Amino acid sequence: MAKRPLGLNKANKSKKKKLDGEEKPEKAATKEISPENDDSEPAPQLTLDADEEDDMGQLESLYTNWTSSERDSPRLLHGVIHECDSLLQKAKGEGLPARFHEIYGASLLDLAGFAEKKKPVKKKKVKSEDVAAETSDMFVDAALERVETGLEQYPEDAGLLFVKSRALKQDIDEKMSAVANDERKATAKKMIAQLNAILEVFKQAQKHASTVTPDQLDVVEELIELSGALQGVVKMSDIADTTLVACEKLYNEILESEKDEKTVQKAHRGVGTCKMIIADSLLDLLDEDDEDNDDTVKLAKKNLKSAIEHFQKSETDEDGEFMVTLAETMIQYGNLFETESEEQKKWYGEAVKRLRQAQRMGVGKYDEMILELEDD
After folding, report:
1. pLDDT on residue 98
2. Cβ neighbours of residue 365 under 8 Å, at least 6 residues apart?
3. Is the dihedral angle over the CA atoms 290, 292, 293, 299 positive or is it negative?
4. Are 178 and 117 within 8 A, CB to CB?
5. Within a domain: residue 367?
6. Which of 150, 292, 310, 326 is spaced 20 to 30 A from 75 at the CA atom?
7. How far apart are CA 376 and CA 372, in angstroms?
């Protein structure tokens, strides 16, 4: 059996959420929820496909402008929030549909991405003249409050439940990024229960939904990453494993029921990722200085083969980065066979095909790895 360090797509494995408070590149400073903040930016092009008298139609159209945009500026979001506030005042909190609360909550979560992160601070006395700047956690809290208000009226609305699962996940990110180092472990332990709550909310949403969109499915992928990061903080070995099993089950349920091509593609990649993570943990148990444990190798092979099968079902000619992920999985699988065996050559060959194509697409340079694989 040959083993080699991969080093192909290191960024793929470093995508796990960092809970050390690392900030995103600054996109914009959000001083208040108002479209007037962005005077320095050109006004975005809007297409409002709704009657002027149809308030919800106008809001829906405005929100569609945001979701179909590049999402690189909060200006459209400010417009959506402004429209939500206007509708809220006009209706005085009564007679608003579930979709209103869903759009409002989702927009607040998106707006959090443009706000400054709350910085970790040591306990100190707060001066009466201190004025708190609006930070991303405030928008997440506001989103949760808005969604809960909607769920009081529409407890089985799938859209609201999907947004709630996303908000609870972002709430963990916010709390972990803002906590001081000496409180990180205690905070992480509290967040573990929230992981389970998010899964339950997502299951409820899935139960009541006629379909699951790829964007809604993002939460499951992020939960897998987040559970691994939390496990690293609290050193409890079963956190990520429990979440992984639950998420894989969700993906498989979606594969059984969904027809939407993009959602099915994402679910296949989700199952493949779960299988790959399991295989990685098994391979970590193997000590290169000792004789290989046949049972561990066999189980790792089984999971890697399953990962490859799911990845191949979701492979496209346009996604070069994913080709590298699939190639990396194929190399790992090939490494578990005897050196220069037909099986190893087969999987190395399949990996080389994808690396060449990814390189032609400008994803990266893989000449050295290709030569090494072909030499074998």
Report:
1. 97
2. 359
3. positive
4. yes
5. yes
6. 150
7. 7
Calpha distance 139→159 (Å, rounded): 19
Domains identified in the chain, total number: 1
State which amino acid sits at residue 291: E
pLDDT band at 123 (very low <50, low <70, confident <90, very high): low
Residue 143 is inside which H or E element, if any?
Answer: helix 136-153
> In whole angstroms, how far apart are CA 127 and each of 34, 118, 272, 308?
28, 18, 52, 58
Q: Which amino acid is at 216?
A: Q
48 lies in some domain: no
Q: What are the Cα distances from residue 105, in Å, to 99, 142, 167?
A: 10, 8, 8
Q: pLDDT tens digits, residue range 164-216?
A: 999 999 999 999 998 888 898 888 888 888 898 999 999 999 999 999 999 99
Helices assigned H by DSSP within 68-135: 75-91, 98-112
What is the domain extent for residue 374? 315-376
pTM of the model: 0.79
Q: Which of 152, 20, 80, 55 is nearest to 144 (CA)?
A: 152
Identify whether 136 is part of a domain.
no
Burial of 236 (0-12, 13-18, 19+ CB in 10 A): middle
Indicate the pLDDT class of residue 42, thresholds 50, 70 and 90.
Answer: low
Alpha helix stretches (DSSP H) within 235-341: 238-257, 261-285, 294-313, 320-335
Token pair in block for residue 46: 């809007």
Q: Is residue 107 domain-resident?
A: no
C-alpha 363/C-alpha 353 separation (Å) is: 14
